[in-house]
């Protein structure tokens, strides 16, 4: 009878240990996911601050880049055909 009670107690202890291991596993997994999301968030914020600083800069390279982007945007707004030309048939 004592052996049976000891076996039941040992099984209960093993189940508790297994549940604690599973909880620890989930905590580690969600912790890793949280760290990954935070790293992405801080990388985005760093990129955003860098772009804002570049836009505020008066360095000649950044000024040339801004002019190039403005020129490409202007080319994108122009029509492919002249307004008075005949449509393609």
Describe it for me?
The protein has 89 residues and is an all-alpha fold. The chain has one domain. It has two helices and no strands. It starts with a helix and ends in a 12-residue tail after the last helix.
Observed structural traits:
89 residues, mainly alpha, 2 helices, elongated
Portion of residues in beta strands equals under 5%
Rg over C-alpha atoms, rounded to the nearest angstrom: 32 Å
Total number of beta strands? 0
Query: Portion of residues in helices?
Result: over 70%
Question: Which spans of ≥5 residues are poorly predicted at pLDDT below 50?
Answer: none
Oligomer: single chain
Main structural class: mainly alpha
Main sheet summary: none
- Based on CA inertia axes, which overall geometry fits? elongated
* Overall structural domain count: 1
Give me the number of helical elements: 2
Note the gap between the termini.
98 Å
Average pLDDT across residues?
87
């Amino acid at each position: 009878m004592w052996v049976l009670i000891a076996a039941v107690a040992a099984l209960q202890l093993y189940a508790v240990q297994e549940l604690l291991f599973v909880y620890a596993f989930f905590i580690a997994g969600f912790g890793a996911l949280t760290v990954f999301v935070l790293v992405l968030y801080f990388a985005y914020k760093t990129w955003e601050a860098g772009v804002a600083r570049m836009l505020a800069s008066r360095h000649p390279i950044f000024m040339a880049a801004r002019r190039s982007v403005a020129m490409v945007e202007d080319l994108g707004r122009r029509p492919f055909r002249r307004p008075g030309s005949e449509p393609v048939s």
